[in-house]
Amino acid sequence: MEEDFENMKINAEQNIFSYRSAAERAARSDRTVLLLRHSMRESLKNGTSDPPLTPEGAEYAKNCAAPLAGLGPDTGFGASPRIRGIQTAEAIRLGIGKEVENKAVRTVEEISDTAMFDYPGRLDDALRDSDVPALLRQYYSTGRCPGMKDLEPFGTGLVKFLTETDFGCRNTILISHDIVIVALMSVLKAHDFQADDWCGYLEGAALFRSQGGDWTIGYVVPDLRTKKKMTLFI
After folding, report:
1. Of the given ranges (96-100, 161-165, 175-179), which has the lowest mean pLDDT?
2. DSSP state of 104
3. Per CATH, which fold does 2-113+152-226 belong to?
4. What is the pTM of this model?
5. What is the pLDDT of residues 105-145, one digit of tens each?
6. Which residues are 232's β-sheet partners?
7. DSSP character for 145?
8. H/E/C letters for each residue in 165-211?
9. What phi and psi, each to the nearest 5 degrees, are found at residue 62?
10. pLDDT above 90 covers what percent of the chain?
11. Which of 172, 183, 199 is nearest to 79 (CA)?
12. Which residues on adjacent β-strands are paired with residue 8?
């Protein structure tokens, strides 16, 4: 499937990449952007919409990072301003090791979960007052939901941001949220997410730019052999 956003070609591949195969693909590409979900976090029911990672989540992110060392030293890091995003990016950077130890993690508002809502506090309202799984099912099936930006313009805007922003490195790892990644992949028809097979922790979108300037997007997971099904909004 190929979408054309103002003459920018995006080819959606239906296969799933492991981190290792994504790094190998990156070596043949002009530029690569990985947009990954954060690692395991504390419960959203503990009184905050911005919980930190659990100790297990921090360790998982660090342990998953080794194959991403194949991206090489020209790799940068960015994260949603949420604590769990920044902590995940830092854990991955630490897990990759010395090649990237001097790279700072920049915060990127455009990939925050609040970026999908009409105003940042609207997400907190939804978490407090709404049946969030039902809200998200409505959003992804109809493209609209009260208090949220329409799915298609949000997704296409995110495509443009990811492919047109100069992140300062050949390869970039960005830590975001499941609802943002699903919006991007759904608009491009790059992966068929189901409520019982959702975007898992440290899974996400892999975008590769060819030497000719065309982009390809696919789904990426730490290791295909250990990929588990996840439930929407756990």
Report:
1. 96-100
2. P
3. Rossmann fold (3.40.50)
4. 0.95
5. 999 999 999 999 999 889 888 888 888 899 999 999 999 99
6. none
7. -
8. CCCCCCEEEEEECHHHHHHHHHHCCCCCCECCECCCCCCEEEEEECC
9. -65, -40
10. 82
11. 172
12. 5
CA distance 203 to 221: 5
> Whole-angstrom Cα distance, residue 148 to residue 153?
11
Q: How far apart are CA 124 and CA 48, in angstroms?
A: 9
Q: Report the side by side order of strands in the sheet with 204-209.
A: 2-5, 8-18, 215-221, 204-209, 31-37, 171-176, 75-79, 105-107
Residue 18, strand partner residues: 221
The residue ranges of every structural domain in the chain are: 2-113+152-226
- Written as six digits, the tokens of 216 are 């390809």
Amino acid found at 194: Q
Report residue 27 as tokens. Answer: 């070596």
Q: Cα–Cα distances in Å, from 132 out to 20, 81, 127, 128, 211?
A: 34, 21, 7, 9, 42
Phi/psi region, residue 189 (left: phi>0; alpha: psi -120 to 50; beta: rest), is left
At 210, list the tokens: 């060819």
